[in-house]
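User: Earlier you gave me the apo prediction for this protein. Now I'd like the version with zinc ion bound, so I can compare the two side by side. Same sequence as before, with the ligand SMILES added.
Assistant: Got it. Here's the input I'm using:
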Amino acid sequence: MPLAVDVRKLARRITSRVGRRGSEYVGRWQSIKMEALERDDHACRRCGKTREEIGKEPDVNHLIPVRAFDDPQEAHRLLNVVCLCPSCHSTVEHQAEVSGLEK
Ligand SMILES: [Zn+2]
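And here is the structure of the complex with zinc ion:
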């Protein structure tokens, strides 16, 4: 019965999506991350440290946090990400917490 096969296939697809942890970081995240690194010349946008000075690729930080979006994929846009070195990243995250993330 072709219909039964389709349903089983669909169910398996849904299960594998829901079952995977951290699913908000799949999809377009990897490619946005690469685009952001290229746009920012692999350097921190806040202090200007380069990949060589940091010793690794800078972190790619969301300006508006992923959790603020109904659909996490909406957060993964080039306009909403910025490259930061680990120390600026933690400073920025701390400031965001202090200011209470105004909408
Ligand atoms: Zn920095």
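For your comparison, keep in mind: The mean pLDDT is 82.
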